[in-house]
């Protein structure tokens, strides 16, 4: 276990190094001059040149023959390692501060989306496997097929239009009504409102969460339902399940204790793999629902060529994905004792 | 991992393929949907002639509801009544009109061409490049495998759409590189930005095929017939391309059908974000993006292009499931 852990950690670190390199090169290859973007189209060439100099954008990318450390990449890496992600070109706010302020919104939305996926997807998958080829099975299969085939941005617009505008039963966009103000503790509005004893605000936050969470959760829901069904079918056909039934255990016990626990492994893997998809889907969902999270932030930054924000946001997203993948890998052993790391 | 052989062109195996395929309901439904969209794409110009670059001004018809509503809605009835003959034409604009008075059905129909082309081409590119790299990595192993494995790990750590956005924003300049301009001409897409989006989506899929092909090759490589070919003195190239690759194709084909679905959604998503196809090109995602200013009063501008994306994607997903039933029966539950 020890040496596996070290190798797995080393690989994660190497991947993160690769991520930083890719983002560095990508961001600097986006056409257009960030200095001009900052100063506006009518900036004089001299002013733009001075600003480039000030931002260090006139230095070579990787290697400066005169002074090896006086290049953009070494400076960028040193800053990155000390947690300095630079400053937003337009806003002049440190990227890390923006990131800290916006991440909870995306995290809250992603958790809500995962909850939607698990609370609907897992029971649907279990039911489909237990009543194979019944109407429930067909229904679950159809829902999961529709879920993966539905473009997130279209689903988001449809939900916002029908439930938000036409029926008016849920807010069509935003994160919290303007009449409420929640002082952050965890950054999750629903939790914070409850902790601060503001049930009305908590309820409003939940209402704002529902539509974007359904939109963002649609694909994970479909995948969770599908994987749960096939994993359950697989497990239910195994000898030990038959043995458990043969010794007279109740159906419910067999399903919940013997089968489900062993069917969880692929489900956990898939949930882990959804981390990237959720962060990607957040770009679309947040843009549609004006959700003040990382996705809409990075999207705006791309259209404004705000290098430091794109850099910080994308690196952070990739970092989250790598860490989640690591945790998923490590959680295998506790879920399936047959797996040993060597 | 699967070891099923791909249907060769011998009559006997062909009939096995079709017999199994006919038994797969999702496969049949998917094939019908996909075929319908292919036919619509091919005959789009015959059904509804249209040139997005040369459009007549029809401002009097801005944002009108689907013409069927003329049957019960007085206002729509007036819109779709021919001033000369006085007849109501309920088929004038079955999906309604957009903010420039254009018929949405016509644009959705012509969008079929774009989406199918882009979805298929980006998938084929990813499939060919990814599988080739995966076969090489799996067959030769060693440093090549390590390097490719590392690059794959790094690429898969990025949320796909972010990687695609990044790639698309690098090459979306006014002067497209030669490769992109060339592909634009080759596939007659008339939009360098769309080609960039297509390549971006393709790039994101490459690691998926690389991993898949590598895994399959690792299992096929150990089988007796490959060892036999080696013992008979077959060269490395012959072993890879004549013996290992053809026997590794089934899962790649299944993944291919499913990837066309993903690619269609992702290209539309890039169009929706304003990075892919640009107006006036009738690309479905771009149409939905256009509709964002109007859909509160004219929801049909958003509903129909989205429905087209949904049905196309559904078709390819069903087809992929069907192909899996046929080519890879053991993985189906």
TrEMBL record, chain A:
Pfam families: BPD_transp_1, BPD_transp_1_N. The keyword tRNA-binding does not apply. Residues 103-332 form the ABC transmembrane type-1 domain. It comes from the Bacteria. GO terms for biological process: transmembrane transport. InterPro entries: BPD_transp_1_N, MetI-like. It is found in: Cell membrane. It is a multi-pass membrane protein. Coiled coil: none annotated. PANTHER family: DIPEPTIDE TRANSPORT SYSTEM PERMEASE PROTEIN DPPB-RELATED. Belongs to the binding-protein-dependent transport system permease family. This is Peptide/nickel transport system permease protein. It comes from Deinococcus soli (ex Cha et al. 2016). The lineage of its organism: Bacteria, Thermotogati, Deinococcota, Deinococci, Deinococcales.
From TrEMBL, chain B:
GO terms for biological process: transmembrane transport. The chain crosses the membrane at residues 29-47, 118-140, 147-173, 193-213, 252-278, 298-320. It is a multi-pass membrane protein. GO terms for cellular component: plasma membrane. It is found in: Cell membrane. It holds the Pfam family OppC_N. CDD domains: TM_PBP2 (cd06261). Residues 112-320 form the ABC transmembrane type-1 domain. Keywords: Cell membrane, Membrane, Transmembrane, Transmembrane helix, Transport. Belongs to the binding-protein-dependent transport system permease family. This is ABC transporter permease subunit.
